[in-house]
Design a protein that fits this description.
about 40% strand; seven-stranded antiparallel beta sheet; 3 helices; about 10% helix
């Protein structure tokens, strides 16, 4: 199967920008089939943990990061909590049972891609899509499910954090990675994807350690080491100083 996302041929730097919705600023990076989007977890020296470690590994091959962000919840050893598929290899199995915390707030979901197509689906409905996914990461909860907000979200919730996640369009040809630049609740965050961006499905990544690498926006967030990271790979000559 020929995979557009695997080779990086013709890959472009993702388009990152800032937008405001209901007086809250958001940073977002848009990815299409032309981009070489990958997941990163472990390198030759163990867990990457940071954007800088991935940059160093890519630089050895004449490549660079276009954009990147943390991409799913993880344990103390930074191993994924749920499904994790990298370059066609499943490194951690899917979790479909209800559980504690945001991850276990069903429905949670899987974001996956291959052949220039992006998918976000309820984790319990993932199996029919498995063959379509060269990369996949599970997180939760779902934010938007076929145009509807997660049923547990409350507009008046006082639980507010800086949050990040991903949404896809109905055609599955575009994925938009979003980080709130101010603390928001789940309801606000989900409505940004649905009402402002017009995306039919969206998945939450995290809200305590949200990190973004976006040279176009002057962002290279640091902090505690991360687990799964998603990002685009570009030729080093395309990288912004």
């Amino acid at each position: 199967m020929a995979l557009l996302l695997a080779s990086g041929a013709g890959a472009t730097a993702s388009t990152c920008r800032q937008e405001v919705f209901e007086e809250v600023p958001y940073s977002l990076c848009e990815v299409t089939a032309a981009d070489d989007l990958r997941l990163f977890l472990n390198g030759p020296n163990g867990n990457y943990g940071s954007f800088r470690a991935i940059e160093s590994a890519l630089a050895a091959g004449g490549k660079a990061l276009g954009f990147a962000m943390n991409a799913g919840m993880y344990h103390r050893d930074r191993s994924p909590v749920g499904l994790y598929i990298e370059d066609g290899e499943e490194k951690h199995g899917i979790v479909t049972a209800e559980g504690p915390g945001n991850f276990g707030l069903l429905p949670n979901g899987v974001f996956c891609w291959a052949d220039g197509s992006f998918y976000i689906t309820d984790s319990r409905k993932f199996e029919p899509l498995r063959g379509n996914c060269r990369y996949a990461t599970q997180s939760g909860p779902m934010l938007v499910i076929k145009g509807k907000l997660h049923p547990s979200f409350l507009k008046s919730s006082e639980s507010a954090y800086i949050r990040n996640g991903v949404g896809v369009d109905k055609a599955g040809t575009k994925a938009v990675f979003v980080m709130s630049d101010r603390a928001v609740n789940f309801h606000q965050f989900a409505r940004f994807f649905r009402d402002h961006l017009g995306l039919s499905d969206a998945l939450y990544f995290d809200g305590n350690i949200s990190r973004l690498y976006a040279p176009e926006l002057g962002r290279h967030d640091g902090g505690f080491a991360m687990g799964p990271i998603v990002g685009t790979v570009i030729d080093s000559g395309q990288a912004q100083e």
